[in-house]
Amino acid sequence: MSDAPAPLRVLRGDATAPRAAGPKIIAHVCNDRGGWGRGFVLALSRRWPEPERDYRAWHRDRARNGFALGAVRLVRVLPDTWVANMVGQHGTRRGSGGPPVRYEAIAAGLRTVAGHALELGATVHMPRIGCGLAGGRWERVEPLVREALCARGVAVTVYDTD
Q1: Does an H or E element contain 138, and which?
Q2: Distance, CA of 60 to CA of 80 (rounded, Å)
Q3: How far is residue 56's CA from residue 37's CA, in Å, rounded to a whole number?
Q4: In 3D, which of 96, 154, 160 has the Cα closest to residue 131?
Q5: How far is CA 5 from each of CA 29, 104, 142, 154, 157, rounded to the nearest angstrom?
Q6: In this structure, what are the phi and psi dihedrals at residue 42, rounded to the nearest 5 degrees?
Q7: Per-residue tens of pLDDT for the chain, all 162 residues
Q8: Distance from C-alpha of 102 to C-alpha of 82, rounded to nearest angstrom
Q9: Rounded Cα distance, 149 and 111, in Å
């Protein structure tokens, strides 16, 4: 890791098809209720079955395996590509407690992803995590990404589809 922060690039494209050489981690936010069926996870499942299968098993066995807000599981989908299932959303619906996004859980998950990325020599790729169905705001998430990843020397690419 150098003293200079790594870049955060924003590109138009598909986060499930990262544009980079070398090891890659695709990071995204999951909920803590075991739901997988809307949003970015559908694109992941169309490309690879492993992240959904692992998430469902992880949630099913949650009493014994550390599944909780802020937790991360890395799932290898290609020889040089992993998906980071980060639990950063409480529930699936907006209610009296506001949107399901949990910024502190996303921050914790990103710190874990940074450790994996540094160990693997990987870049990190993601949609605007926590800002779709989770109801978060990018103005709050981007600083978390910069602090947890870029400041530690991990290059990040964020993909916008529209």
Answers
A1: helix 138-148
A2: 28
A3: 11
A4: 160
A5: 24, 22, 14, 8, 14
A6: -65, -40
A7: 456 789 999 999 999 999 999 999 999 999 999 999 999 999 999 999 999 999 999 999 999 999 999 999 999 999 999 999 999 999 988 776 789 999 999 999 999 999 999 999 999 999 999 999 899 999 999 999 999 999 999 999 999 986
A8: 23
A9: 7
